[in-house]
């Protein structure tokens, strides 16, 4: 069993309960559940429970999965543009979390500009993917919205988030970040459909 999936569900129940419960006995139970969850998160992730509580406290409102946006950009040969991340050294599509007051499509355009220097536009929705909590990918559920995009301007230049930027044949990428191999394969299929190949 992947304990992070269990902890993610329990912390969601506890935090939503603390947001909405008014009965003092229920609130006491939710506090106890939250204390247990932060203790076990701390053990699994090697983070002090107080730091876990602090991170959770920074998130307001009803607890929902995080939403990210990814931009799939292909050259004329069908190679996909990838960024080698500075945090884990693996390759990913230009991507990032959707900011408040921003649509996923706007986030994909913004992140591509920040990470690659390119100005892009979204062409088609590739798919919406769900990444469930696990040791390899992180403690929370995340939703990734992947778009097929086209370059409309700019020049390739790196940022503090990426060590390298280059086009790759999907099968040649040495190390993929999280589920980005799945995103790239799905985007390649949509790219071929878009060009009637």
- Major sheet summary line: 4 strands, mixed
- In CATH, the architecture of the largest domain is Alpha-Beta Complex
Beta-strand percentage?
Answer: 25-35%
> Strand order across the biggest sheet?
4-1-6-5
Could you give me the name of the CATH homologous superfamily of the largest domain? Nucleoside Triphosphate Pyrophosphohydrolase
Low-confidence parts: none
So what's the overall shape?
elongated
Query: How many structurally independent domains?
Result: 2
Query: What is the structural class?
Result: alpha+beta
pLDDT averaged over residues:
91
Report the top-level CATH class of the largest domain.
Alpha Beta
Terminus-to-terminus distance: 43 Å
Could you give the topology of this structure?
Layout: H1 3-20, H2 24-45, H3 49-57, E1 66-72, E2 80-85, E3 91-92, E4 95-97, H4 104-116, E5 118-131, E6 142-154, E7 162-168, H5 180-194
Parallel strand pairs: 1-6
Antiparallel strand pairs: 1-4, 2-3, 2-7, 5-6
